[in-house]
Please model this.
Amino acid sequence: MSAADGFAATATTYDRARRGLIPCFDRFYGTAIDQLDTAGRPIRRVLDLGAGTGLLAAMVASAHPEASLVLIDEVPDMLEQSRLRLVGVDAEYVLASFADDLPAGPFDAVVSALAIHHLQDRAKQDLMCRIANVLTPGGIFVNAEQVAAATPDLDAHQIACWRRTVVASGVSADDLAAADRRMTADICAPVEAQLNWLRDAGFIDVDAPFRDGRFAVLRGRR
Ligand SMILES: C[S@@+](CC[C@H](N)C(=O)[O-])C[C@H]1O[C@@H](n2cnc3c(N)ncnc32)[C@H](O)[C@@H]1O
Model:
């Protein structure tokens, strides 16, 4: 199953299991939002890559109500859910793939959550370079991402630990099965590699201010 097919099939039920499937939900998304303050500038225009149902975009809008948002996703039904969620927010919705040209900058921030790991590693690196190009100087890129452990054995252990926690939290069998189907399209990369790719793309102040098993927040400043 492709990533797009997986999200199209679950767009209307996607939100209900988020907290169960992301055991560190509050610190994970909360850290991503906190990183926007490190830009040391007003956050007026923000690009959200793989916005899905608008979960992260809504948090950005709440923390920076003066910002205008541009949301990109390749799945129409996911983008439609974000449109419903963000009523009243100054937002533009772009049905596009990460392979397409990014909307013209400059953006004060580019954010993404749980989306870029669907790309092959080369495409991830290419996207990081293109993100740097649409950021204003000093602008910030924050990627709240699903990451691989350092070795395949450690990764298998990390996934087993995640599954135990998720099952114990009471996520339904249906929601876990849907997540499992979507995860067949995942191409997660280790944190260290991704931090190096950010540096290669010209980012400074590169760091991973949060990591809890499969979930990490990666950031860099142009
Ligand atoms: C797991 S969801 C995350 C949504 C949201 N950012 C959140 O935190 O809940 C990933 C989203 O990225 C989108 N996506 C994945 N690969 C993409 C690509 N190559 N181009 C555009 N969107 C993509 C999917 O359609 C999906 O809506």
User: Anything to note?
Assistant: DSSP finds nine helices and seven strands in the chain. The mean pLDDT is 94.
